[in-house]
Design goal:
The complex is a heterodimer of chains A (137) and B (137).
Chain A (H helix, E strand, L loop, with lengths): L2 H22 L3 E3 L10 H4 L7 E7 L5 H13 L5 E7 L4 H6 L7 E5 L5 E6 L4 H9 L3
Chain B lengths: L2 E3 L1 H20 L2 H16 L6 H10 L9 E3 H23 L3 H21 L3 H13 L2
Helix pairs in contact in B: 1-2, 1-3, 1-5, 2-4, 4-5
The chains are: A alpha+beta (137), B mainly alpha (137).
Chain lengths: 137, 137
């Protein structure tokens, strides 16, 4: 295989990955069974919302983390039954391992008991967050 | 925290992609050595000091009309450091006649630069937390 063919194959594979990656960012992935740990206000650093709590994990080398934080902070202002907590993943490694957080930003959606209902990777759109929140009672 | 014009690094990623593609196709050691030096400047001094950033500021930026979004320099620097790692391995591979090592390492750097240029892929978001998890107790 000559080097030009190699280049084309590498770029094709990367393009395929790129489209999948872009499409899957921000999408709310609901858990099939609620088998996660019950997270306490002490663990996530804020009181639980009466309906939903969004917990965002961020890291230092992450530009979309800031956009996500700005969006979610803005959204909870008008939603009295939803709370938002922002966690620096590096400072909470035990929790990060327990919840198996691998990339940032990752946003967990907890129900009123503090159990994870689902999560979203990357910066979601406002409509995607709204949709996820509306599905949690 | 230092913020720079976010269009600069995106432009640099396009040039980096082209340079790495040329390196992969021609297997020319001077091309990969040059890109390694550029990554080294980006990683050690900051991405706003590379020759590509200079071209952006002097030639591209004055012709752009859109208002610049600002971006934190730390994620960009992290990506430059990862690029430096791959490019160094590729250069050493080329210098020592290990063409397989050269091709694989160059391809990895190329994929990262291409995803960044085409999809605004954030390497630090995907890799950094995994590194921290793997290296600390």
């Amino acid at each position: 295989m000559d080097s030009l063919t190699q280049l084309v194959l590498v770029l094709l594979a990367a393009t395929g990955f790129g489209f999948w990656f872009k499409r899957s960012r921000g999408e709310f992935r609901r858990k099939k069974t609620l088998n996660g740990p019950k997270l306490s206000p002490a663990a996530i650093g804020c009181e639980l919302g009466s309906r939903v709590t969004m917990v965002q994990f961020s890291s230092a080398f992450c530009s979309p983390c800031r956009a996500t934080q700005a969006l979610l902070e803005d959204m909870v202002k008008t939603l009295p039954d939803v709370r938002y907590s922002h966690i620096d993943a590096e400072s909470q490694l035990e929790l990060v391992r327990e919840l198996d957080i691998r990339s940032t930003p990752t946003t967990l959606f907890l129900n009123r008991d503090g159990v994870e209902v689902g999560r979203a990777f990357g910066t979601p759109k406002r409509s995607q967050v709204m949709h996820a929140l509306n599905a949690i009672h | 925290m230092i913020n720079i014009d976010a269009r600069g690094p995106r432009f640099s990623a396009v040039i980096t992609t082209v340079v790495l593609a040329i390196a992969l196709v021609t297997s020319n050691i001077w091309v990969i050595a040059f890109q390694t030096a550029v990554f080294a400047i980006g990683a050690l001094r900051g991405p706003q000091f590379t020759p590509y950033a200079f071209i952006f500021r002097k030639i591209v930026k004055p012709r752009l009309k859109s208002t610049p979004a600002l971006e934190d320099v730390r994620p960009l620097r992290f990506a430059q450091t990862v690029g430096l790692g791959f490019a160094l391995v590729a250069t050493i591979g080329a210098a020592s006649g290990a063409t397989g090592v050269f091709a694989v390492a160059t391809a990895f750097a190329l994929v990262a630069a291409f995803l960044n240029a085409a999809f605004n892929f954030c390497l630090g978001c995907q890799v950094y937390l995994l590194l921290v998890r793997a290296t600390s107790k």
